[in-house]
Design goal:
Blueprint: H1 3-20, H2 25-59, H3 64-71, H4 75-83
């Protein structure tokens, strides 16, 4: 990972810290609501972009463990990303589809 990527992510973390530090509780809550709404809208695209990167690395024959180390995630997370699972296994429906 290049330093630029780390710097860009750090800017996001710093901005979130600034939101948390807003003194007025109402203004802070309004800002948090806007951040969370944006996250809800943006998260699927961010997951797609990360999945594209994982699929490209797998197409280049990169091992799961190396991908996990590069992305800073677990081996299982890389495997789930490749499979297209966006969330934790615990949030997946366990019910089997009804037979027709």
């Amino acid at each position: 990972m290049s330093d630029d990527v780390g710097e860009e992510a750090q800017k996001v973390f710093d901005a979130l810290s600034e939101v948390e530090a807003i003194e007025d509780p109402v203004a802070r809550a309004v800002a948090i609501s806007k951040v969370l709404a944006d996250h809800d809208e943006r998260a699927p695209r961010l997951r797609d972009l990360r999945r594209e990167a994982v699929l490209q690395m797998r197409a280049d024959k990169m091992p799961y463990r190396k991908i996990a180390a590069l992305l800073g995630v677990s081996l299982g997370t890389v495997q789930n990303i490749e499979r297209g699972h966006a969330g934790a296994w615990g949030t997946k429906s366990r019910a089997k589809p009804a037979a027709e």
